[in-house]
Amino acid sequence: METRLYTQTFRDNAAMGRPVTLLTGPQGRYTYGAPDSFVDGLRGGREFSSGQWSGWYATPFSATVDMGGGIPYSSVALGTLIDKGNDIFPPLEVTVSTSEDGTSYTEAGKISVPVPGADDPDGIKDYTVSFPETTARYIKIDAVTNGSMPAWHARGGSAAILFVDEITVK
User: Fold this and answer.
1) Is the pTM here over 0.85, yes or no?
2) What average pLDDT does the segment 72-85 reach?
3) So what's the pLDDT on residue 32?
4) Does residue 7 carry a pLDDT above 90?
5) Contact 18, 168 (CB under 8 A)
6) What residues pair up with 123 in beta bridges, in sequence order?
7) Strand order in the sheet with 20-22
8) Which of 43, 44, 64, 132 is most buried, by the most CB atoms less than 10 A from its CB?
């Protein structure tokens, strides 16, 4: 008889339990618990089909988090899964914007993410955007999906999938 033990990582942060609104939806079969699963503090494991990850295919990821106002923060991390053999790649770019009214947003920070090489490790990776401390009520996170996998990949030129689990605000 085989016994398996599964663990999950709990990550306390300022976004936990906050209302999340998806501005772009995940691919139908990879919706799982989105968007509430992004702020539950539970990090998904290495299996993309576990129900802990939501996937965007050939469309950007875009979501807002209502922080309620008055809570200082200076970074937002987007938790992703990389599994190149299953066409799961990191975002090409992550942009964080803030707003007081939920309508007019100002870019707080942006990072560019290099496309991984064939020998780069797969795994769970956070992409953190840091910026000057703010207490803005709303955070908007935009991530550009990889629309063309690299030539070294078996399906080079095809669109990749972006899998997201946790949004961490500190």
Assistant:
1) yes
2) 97
3) 73
4) no
5) no
6) 82
7) 20-22, 61-66, 138-144, 93-99, 106-112
8) 44
Number of residues in the chain: 170
Query: Could you read off the pLDDT of 117-148 as tens digits, one per residue?
Result: 999 999 999 999 999 999 999 999 999 999 99
d(CA 133, CA 136) in angstroms, rounded, equals 9
Q: Is a pLDDT exceeding 80 seen at residue 6?
A: no
Predicted pLDDT at 59:
92
Query: Residue 126 to residues 4, 44, 88, 99, 168: CA-CA distances in angstroms?
Result: 26, 12, 14, 23, 9
d(CA 155, CA 91): 17
Residue 19 pLDDT > 80: yes
Greatest Cα pair distance in the chain: 58
- pLDDT at site 49: 63
The alpha carbon of residue 77 and the mean position of all alpha carbons in its chain are separated, in whole angstroms, by 8
CA nearest to 110, candidates 149, 150, 140: 140
